[in-house]
Design brief:
The chain is an alpha/beta fold. It has helices at residues 3-23, 39-54, 99-110, 139-145, 163-170, 200-204, 241-259, 293-313, 333-344, 361-365, 392-410, 430-437, and strands spanning 58-61, 67-71, 80-86, 120-126, 187-195, 208-214, 216-225, 262-264, 268-271, 281-290, 317-326, 329-330, 352-356, 371-376. The chain has two domains: 3-214 and 328-420, Aminopeptidase (3-Layer(aba) Sandwich), CATH 3.40.630; 216-327 and 427-437, Alpha-Beta Plaits (2-Layer Sandwich). The longest helix has 21 residues, at 3-23. The structure holds zinc ion. Zinc ion (ZN) binds at residues 86, 97-98, 129, 194, 360.
Amino acid sequence: MSAAFLARVTDARLVLDRADELATHSARTDGIERTYLTAEHRAVNALAAKWMRQAGMRTWQDAAGNACGRLEGLRPGLPALLLGSHLDTVPDAGRYDGILGVLAAIAVVTRLREGELPFAVEVIAFGDEEGTRFGTTLLGSRAVAGTWQPEWADLTDPHGVTLREAARSFGLDVDDIGSAARRAEDLVGYLEVHIEQGPKLESAQQALGVVTGIAAARRLSVTIEGEARHCATPFGSRHDALVGASEAILAIEDIARARGSYATVGALRVEPGAVNVIPGLVEFSLDLRDETAEARDATLAEILERITALAADRGLAVRAEHTHVAPAVHCAPRLRDVVRAGIRATGERDPLELFSVAGHDAMAIAARTDVAMFFVRCAGGVSHHPDEAVTEADVAAAVDALHAAVLVLAEGGAGGGAGPAAAAVEPAEAAGAAAAAGTVGAAESGQRVLP
Ligand SMILES: [Zn+2]
């Protein structure tokens, strides 16, 4: 067994052991739940900072509660390559979503020496990506990207605690969060390692994949209105909103499946909701994602056309309101090349390229600098669940690939230097929204992003 092989296994084992240690910091005893600006957040920030210092980094906590570390390059003050992901979780989470990216980044820095690279290397452990506590996602990475919205100070958690109050008890001041924003000229780019949250790498029997971009997403609230009547009403005289909604939901699945989009109806409300009354009104959510805004909106246009026709056949009215929209984020070609080269260095000759259906910190950071991502195979593609699992061999490959990618970038092998980030995010959604709106009202909040 070679020394290099032993080093790889040791790094991967350390990453997995640290993930186990982070998992012990939870708001619940029966599983993992770690949310923004809580005691658990404080505890894992302290651990991450300790491990960053052991890797030779200078550490600090930024104004948004992100744990940060920096290793200087050839001389102090050079622009930094950011490596990172998040340490917060959904309720009853697994132990690798986000966490793996932070720990792999620290493991890579352990292999680097100060004064060695033509850029600084920073690791950021974002405090909020999932949005579990305040219902708005990517709070940590949006602060770093400089896209934090002042009105988020008034967001409340399920116990009525405002973000402003939570920040204060964490030792932060929301009015100062703007100082967490990084300047584009101080950044070389951002690389993130993340579990795939899908089964494609497993099917392809590959440990790692090159992420091409992050899906364009929309969320809508769809209302189908009929007439609430006594259940003695004959079928020919009914305008049953729930039967209409059921047809609509089946049509949504059919259309999205045929077009290769991802569509999910996850919440349903029925009025009046009585056993002996024909439903008069149904409201359901629709989450729609695809690789590009055009593809997503083409699917949406077909869905709205079909469900409007289905509803008309039953004498029902349809209204759809856009509640969230997020443009697609394209990983920068120069950094995708670096990611691909990093994976090739692990022996994979033809790495799988795939887009991310889920949102990630990278989509927020893309507003400020070029981004790219590695996906790591996870068992069954399962995530946001205690059954999340990765293998030690795959983690070893991820650390090796990220390390190799940093070195390739340092050699200028894939362009090097800071690049403009503006092209990473699709142009304003207005045109797409208008095209997709059709018969529906398009009231949307352009700043929202969806994990
Ligand atoms: Zn994540």
